Amino acid sequence: MIARIATLLFLLIGACSYAGNDNxxxxxxxxxxxxxxxxxxxxxxxxxxxxxxxxxYYADHPGKGKYTDLWEPIPIQQYxxxxxxxxxxxxxxxxxxxEECIACHQTTSPGWVxxxxxxxxxxxxxxxxxxxxxxxxxxxxxxxxxxxxxxxRGVLAADEQLESxxxxxxxxxxxxxxxxxxxxxxxxDRAMCGACHVQEFAEAExxxxxxxxxxxxxxxxPSHAMDWKANVETAIWAGMPQREVAQGCDMCHYQQNKCxxxxxRHTFSAAEARKPEACATCHNGVDHNEFxxxxxxxxxxxxxxxxxxxxxxxxxxxxxxxxxxxxxPTCATCHFEYKGEFSHNLVRKVRWGFNPTPEIADxxxxxxxxxxxxxxxxxxxxxHSQRFAKAWLDTAxxxxxxxxxxxxxxxxxxxxxxxxxxxxxxxxxRPAPPAPAEDAPGDFYGLFWAKGNNPSFSGRTHAEMWxxxxxxxxxxxxxxxxGGFTYSEGWARLMRRYTxxxxxxxxxxxxxxxKEKFEELxx
Amino acid sequence: MIARIATLLFLLIGACSYAGNDNxxxxxxxxxxxxxxxxxxxxxxxxxxxxxxxxxYYADHPGKGKYTDLWEPIPIQQYxxxxxxxxxxxxxxxxxxxEECIACHQTTSPGWVxxxxxxxxxxxxxxxxxxxxxxxxxxxxxxxxxxxxxxxRGVLAADEQLESxxxxxxxxxxxxxxxxxxxxxxxxDRAMCGACHVQEFAEAExxxxxxxxxxxxxxxxPSHAMDWKANVETAIWAGMPQREVAQGCDMCHYQQNKCxxxxxRHTFSAAEARKPEACATCHNGVDHNEFxxxxxxxxxxxxxxxxxxxxxxxxxxxxxxxxxxxxxPTCATCHFEYKGEFSHNLVRKVRWGFNPTPEIADxxxxxxxxxxxxxxxxxxxxxHSQRFAKAWLDTAxxxxxxxxxxxxxxxxxxxxxxxxxxxxxxxxxRPAPPAPAEDAPGDFYGLFWAKGNNPSFSGRTHAEMWxxxxxxxxxxxxxxxxGGFTYSEGWARLMRRYTxxxxxxxxxxxxxxxKEKFEELxx
Amino acid sequence: MIARIATLLFLLIGACSYAGNDNxxxxxxxxxxxxxxxxxxxxxxxxxxxxxxxxxYYADHPGKGKYTDLWEPIPIQQYxxxxxxxxxxxxxxxxxxxEECIACHQTTSPGWVxxxxxxxxxxxxxxxxxxxxxxxxxxxxxxxxxxxxxxxRGVLAADEQLESxxxxxxxxxxxxxxxxxxxxxxxxDRAMCGACHVQEFAEAExxxxxxxxxxxxxxxxPSHAMDWKANVETAIWAGMPQREVAQGCDMCHYQQNKCxxxxxRHTFSAAEARKPEACATCHNGVDHNEFxxxxxxxxxxxxxxxxxxxxxxxxxxxxxxxxxxxxxPTCATCHFEYKGEFSHNLVRKVRWGFNPTPEIADxxxxxxxxxxxxxxxxxxxxxHSQRFAKAWLDTAxxxxxxxxxxxxxxxxxxxxxxxxxxxxxxxxxRPAPPAPAEDAPGDFYGLFWAKGNNPSFSGRTHAEMWxxxxxxxxxxxxxxxxGGFTYSEGWARLMRRYTxxxxxxxxxxxxxxxKEKFEELxx
Lengths: 523, 523, 523
What we know:
Three copies of one chain form a homotrimer.
Chain A: H1 2-18, H2 23-29, H3 50-60, H4 77-80, H5 82-85, E1 95-97, H6 98-108, H7 110-117, H8 124-128, H9 138-152, H10 167-171, E2 178-180, H11 190-194, H12 198-205, H13 227-232, H14 235-239, H15 243-250, H16 270-274, H17 290-296, H18 298-307, H19 331-335, E3 337-338, E4 341-342, H20 358-361, H21 367-380, H22 386-419, H23 457-478, H24 482-485, H25 491-522
Antiparallel strand pairs in A: 1-2, 3-4
Helix pairs in contact in A: 6-7, 17-18, 21-22, 22-23, 22-25, 23-25
Binding site for heme c 3 (chains A, B, C): 121, 196-197
Binding site for heme c 5 (chains A, B, C): 263, 344
Enzyme class (chains A, B, C): oxidoreductase
């Protein structure tokens, strides 16, 4: 009996320490306690240092980025990157109160007003009066924390409450009472939302602290906090003449600029962002089909069949299994979580990043990667045995490497074709890509730009291997969607591309041989 | 202060007149007032002229169309085009009342009876007793209007009410009390539904009034009201020997014939048709992926996360933002709307139509196109600023043209290959397509018919460019789905096809050159 | 009048006997009556013979299958096939009661406990106290039947009731009160679930009785009951060196081993499995896109727009049209049904099976196929006229054959290329596939393995024709998704592949001719 109790105790302690979720940590996770250090982000005692965060945010912001001379923003881009490009419209003269904004926009754009008027922002008293049983009860404490923050910064007077969060608060500045439409109107950026939501701002910005141990990616990449920089500093994005197509990339790569990618204006709902579909617009398709993989996995199926109508998405993520009644994870429950805590830093468990490369594959036993794998095991162990979780993650790692090997073999074939000058049209009709892109086989630019025989068929095919199929293969494995890494996407597609490249390689070399023989005979 | 009030007034007036939604228009939109002129459709004072509408409907109907000698309907087609092909079954003898229909079909096909018995058609008294607060309250007035219409046409006696809308009303004629199963049974067509729903019939038929200013499309095309004609007068549809495959096209191209494409029998729900999925069966896939684009756009994501369970789809479209509580558009809210009114004419804002062509691209500044663009701006301005709306529509126009340019360049290459006789197998193994299709490179027929080397690889690839990828590119842009016109569909696919065509062009020309040199050497 | 009544009577009798759903049959379908013969499965009077079923289940189980020497299971596979590979973890010592299991796992893996605690298994008293009006009322009788069964087998004492179905019941044995974690812990297999759910076990196992009249498939194939055998006895699955990719196939091909493919642990919900999404993880994608076809068909659209929130998925399948209020079918309503009865044998109406072949096409008029077609007509006639149902099934059969003809023509071309030694690289760089696979053109192995020029481009393309596009074509037809067999998948893709194969055929033969001429000239 004593042995058995000892075992139980061991298990309980083991499980707890494994999850890094001890009592201290739990206390830290308390949402009422604003003061904390988020992944190295320095915050002052008692409160986040909003001004320092804001200063750093703007200092880090790349604006047009390093290729600034190569492109000019088109009008729509002021909405994707208001930090750098937004100008208030010059069609409306005068200074207005929030009531006047609403009165007029009720007619000119009623959808805005309607979405806002049902939001928490428009109904702060409803938040203040929530019962403890209400799943949104946590918002009451959050509101108090926000108000205390604003008071400590002098935005609100001591003991002053926010009346509502209305047009002017977000489009000119918290606490302002009127706004000149032509000179003061702003499109809210991360820092504007962060003026109240300072904890979430700090958490989200802390993604920039990501550092890869062998320099696989530049500091802070890939992340939401640096996604605009990643966008504008991509060679073909900056160089392609079709600016209206290029700006399509901005439409997801703007999380660095704004918060409404997940919390759509003007409802700004937390519940919305907790649902998997909220991630779908950006996380789908040929080079990162996370949404499709999730939805076709058992996890997604449970969401669809059992969760959509029954789980309570108003509860905080940390309570999803208990008060939320979730019986499967959503995107947010796995990707916001790290060692038992939930935050807006989504990259703390990232291992393979955007795409599998040898530089990652060869270092998976490094402690940086190994610790993150253990953090994943702890996440999965919410609902699975640790042994199962580890077996799956090992399987997914090895399966990913198997895909990588095929892609790397194809890459060598394509590189050799290029080095031998044997790509179709390589010597006769291969214009250079637009600067700053530089000619190369299988390069990223070939997915978004083509002229004459650049890219070649084999180069383009290899680009699809590493940028589409290998990524889908890896995403299929890690999101546990069997068809996603066996027959529909991933492996079977890699086999197809490999076949096409081998086929083309043999064809062009036979043709070259024949031509050579012919030249000799013709002499 | 006076300046500010003046500004406000200006804005209010501007917004109202911009939307074309002034008080007069609002009154016109009143659903109780049946008399109106729908896009040139002549209607009598006080009521629509149902008999004239019906006569025109049948007169316009193409039956088997102009290729009538080339094909014969197969049995299933009587269900897609009852106007031309339906024959009552000869297995049941006798004449029956609705009660007898129901008694028997309750056993032979209970699903019909069950769907109908829950419908408004089976429960007119419930409609008559709706409270003003009920979202379906508008149906009460609609029912009264319908009954007045039927009374004025003598179908109902003065002051007579409809008891219910039951089997015989739709399958033999409104108000009939019995039906001979072998001789009188009809499958309801548009005119049959229009016997009561005359306003919707008139609106839907008014799509035929569409006239393109530079003749880009024949009158009335593309539209739901002419989709059967478009179907049977497509050369490869009429000519392909696989009739069971060909009839698959009918399964969407039957809106000209029937109303249950959107309001599925035997529920005939309006709420169903207001949901985006109702459009999915026809508006998805390789050559018009509207559904996918919508669902992955922010609009669709809001529908999925916030709307599906919360918005009230029983309210009329015109009240979707207010009583319906929509916070994002659905298919219907944008495509049924025109200058603030909602109707069953869905083509009044069509600009690029089915597919982008130079004939459209070159005329976008013509007032016909420009006015429609302004109508779109007004639609978007329900929830966006006019400046944003215009910036987006400009972006989408230019992005579409950028795609078109790539496709046109590829088209020239393919045409030149054909003119030079250099398509693979062109001189040795290129059978003619079945009449009435005629041999051509990159033609539509190559998507549905192939024999020997017709179509060639390059021709088929070009057909996919203009008929799949360019359309997806354009639909991705206009439905604001970033992946739909950047990396997953659209632009990146156009680049792939362009690469394939350039590659093939270089290959076959090199081969031809080698052959020629060889022939010379062999002489 | 007499004639009319006679007609009605005729119709009623005809319809009933057609559906095979007469009163006797109805009585048989009564779920309270456990004793019955399921498709030849011998069951004892008064109860199923669980011990015999279990013995046969294990006797039939292939374990590692006939290629056992070629592969070794990796750790994750113990979870897909616990019958053969599961080992209890050695990390926990001691013997525990269910209460102790729960106490510990509440901390180590709370998701399990939470899912289970909301399930019927954890709340048997709630089942016992259900009101007759509750849609789950049928579970009360089912529970009584199960308990009687267990009593008759001596698992429960006479009149003893189950307290709950808890950890130990499923992970060690029904009725056990404690379990040694290191030696007794099992992962439940079909037979374990069958210990209580003996009727469902017998029904599911009866899929093995499937016998094809002309030997088109081996006995019992294709079916859920033999899917593990089908998996491990597939040559390329056993031979491919990438075991982590190969195990992905297991993740669906494990229904022979476990029941949680449809009733996800630890909720084990019947309602879940009645929803179409429950089938999605396995029945989607390139070689069996049933889910996509269903969702885009009218059936799926009605589910999405009218059903998802309104139908009652707690009711038994047999009551779906009545108490369930379904107005369209789901996967389960068609595939669980056979002649008016619903069971866990899903193959009783299978005709074309996994993929269309000439051996099936040429025998469709054989009574085996014809009777199954009539069973389908009866299913469809729940909501459609028999004439419509027959017209559709005829259309689908003929359309499928039209697709098959194209694939067969392409097959001949590819076979001839192989026989002539003309596949690209065939004589210079075509390594043998890994044993037990044997070299062949267009073989299945080429979808999952590639090296050098094996498979060739033309062979791989043909493999995609028969294994992807033809199957999608057929599935699109039978699931009534027009785009699925016209332009998006199916037919139009078959045309594309055919074009690619014809193109390659002409190219390589021209090249061979040129080489030959050149060799002659060089002599």
